[in-house]
Amino acid sequence: MAEHGASPRKSWGQNYLIDRNTIDQVFANFPGLLPEKTTHIAEIGIGLGAFTHKILSWDLPTSLFEIDPISCRIYREGLGNLYPNVKLYEGDFLKNYEHIQSESIFLFGNLPYYITSEIILLCLLQFPRLTGFLFMAQKEFADRITQESSSLSALINGFGEVRKYRTIRSACFYPQPKIDSTLIFFEAKQERLGRDPLTLALFSLLLRVSFWGKRKKLSTAFREAPWESFLTEEVLALVEKEFLLSQIGNFQANCLIHLEKIGWQNLRPDALMPQDFLNFFQNVQKISE
After folding, report:
1. Which of 111, 106, 72 minimizes the C-alpha distance to 91?
2. What does the angle CA 16 – CA 21 – CA 27 come to, to the nearest 5 degrees?
3. How does pLDDT run along the chain (289 residues), one tens digit per residue?
């Protein structure tokens, strides 16, 4: 980067993985670990190419995304010359993802901490043929979504299986962050929720309401939460707002009916496991049928 008069930018969360042995170990079992239905690969944030040169060697259709023009220039002057058919999208991934949205795709990325949840939500809800991802995140974040109950960990479980793939010491990065990072491996299981837009929207809504005030009982949350305020951009991208609003009343009532039926009125959301929320939602859906 010094040759290009640049340095890592904190505002973009740039910490580059530079330890060659670690990179080799991360990719030792790839591409064998790619889910069977994968036909396209994408990398979010190529940085200095730590993941990129491994991914491109598999000779699969690949798309690359990078917001930093310096990293894009370095790629074009190096790896880009060797792989002229690979498409590099320069700019914010959140504004360019439509280019790959319909692909049967597996995603890689070293994600900035401040946008990790947003990207995971986007991929789960807006990529109907997502096969999985391997994302680098802060170790504490990885611990939370793999070991604790939260609206995000429960949502991920609705779409597939997630696990910690490998923890990477902070010393393996430049500049060195204060804490270690962990690679999160996710494999989609579409048979769990399916891809019906209303189903996905209601499941997301249920989770946000359930964790509205973590110390509140589920019965209190279901009765008193401002359901309509949880219609986020990601949810409204699935279903038109007016139609979704017309469904909330019956869905809320059925949630309360089933909650009482199974005796969970006094439970708090953190007392449940992610799979419990999926089972609960699927049983509520049966009431609606």
Report:
1. 72
2. 80
3. 445 444 555 555 578 898 999 999 999 999 999 999 999 999 999 998 999 999 999 999 999 999 999 999 999 999 999 998 999 999 999 999 999 999 999 999 998 888 999 999 999 999 999 999 999 999 999 999 999 999 999 999 999 999 999 999 999 998 888 899 999 999 999 899 999 999 999 999 999 999 998 789 999 999 999 999 999 888 999 999 999 999 999 999 999 999 999 999 999 999 999 999 999 999 999 987 6
Q: Which amino acid is at 138?
A: Q
Q: What is d(CA 222, CA 265) in angstroms, rounded to the nearest whole number?
A: 10
| pTM over 0.90, yes/no | yes
Domains within the chain, CATH numbers bracketed? 2-188 (3.40.50.150), 197-288 (1.10.8)
Phi, psi dihedral angles at 257 (to 5 degrees): -60, -50
The CA distance from 166 to 142, in Å, is 10
Q: Is 154 exposed, middle or buried (0-12, 13-18, 19+ CB in 10 A)?
A: buried
What are the tokens at 276? 């419990």
Tell me the C-alpha to C-alpha distance, in Å, between residue 64 and each of 60, 83, 97, 136.
12, 12, 10, 16
Nearest to 165 by CA among 194, 189, 145: 145
Quick one: tokens of 71?
A: 């990293």
Q: Give me 188's structure tokens.
A: 């989609």
Peptide bond before residue 175 is cis, with ω within 30 degrees of 0: yes
Could you give the dihedral angle defined by the CA atoms of residues 70, 27, 108 and 207, in that order, rounded to the nearest 10 degrees? Answer: -140
Instruction: Count CB neighbours of 19 within 10 A.
Output: 16
SS3 category, 62: strand
